[in-house]
Write a structure and sequence with these properties.
It comes from Thermosulfuriphilus ammonigenes. It is a single chain. The chain is built from three helices and 23 strands. The protein has 219 residues and is α/β, with parallel strands linked by helices. The chain folds into two domains: 91 residues, Rossmann fold; 108 residues, UDP N-Acetylglucosamine Acyltransferase, domain 1 (3 Solenoid), CATH 2.160.10.10. A seven-stranded parallel β-sheet has the order 7-9-12-15-18-21-23, with no helix packed on it. It has a six-stranded mixed β-sheet with strand order 3-4-2-1-5-6. Helix 1 links the parallel strand 1 and strand 2.
Amino acid sequence: MSRKVIIFGTGTFAEVVLFYLKQDTRYDVVAFTATDNYVNSDSIFGFPLVPFEGIESFFPPHDHEMFIAIGYSNLNKIREKFYYLAKEKGYKLLTYISPMSVVLTEKIGDNCFIFENNTIQPYVSIGNNVIIWSGNHIGHHSIIEDHCFISSHVVISGLCHIKKYTFLGVNATIRDSVVVEEENIIGAGSLIMKNTKPRQVYFAKRAELFPKDSSKVRL
């Protein structure tokens, strides 16, 4: 029997989550929910849209799961807020793992979404409320704490420790045995070779603009 799922959110991430769950016969999306100030109609994406404040009256938690489809705003703390509010209402929070990923660990928390083409090696530990977009490598014995967001094509080498509320941008690379402290922003293309400190921000050097236009450059 498929699992009945409510998706929290009305943005593009929620729409993407819907796409993946609709392709998977294990899940049956039945409704969307959001706080009352974001509910401007009775439906969204062809499904009922119900205010979160009273969602349990329409779709009770004893036979429905929920996924909090909020991105990395405010270093994942908005998603964290509704993660706990949904649990207070009694909902079990869904973790989705794409069947097109190689996941060699069972230590994965709730409200995680692991997209396709990820390689997660043995002895990795992934906390609660972690989003792992497509095409990443997470090396053996690494720890990803709660409320993190890993974008695409990130390399986390073996024995790393990514602490909570961290954002890892596209093509970021973390050297083996490195600790990335809480509330770090690791920008696209950044190479982290040593331990960081809390609330640090790293950005890689941007590409330089060549002084000639493309019609005057020979490839």
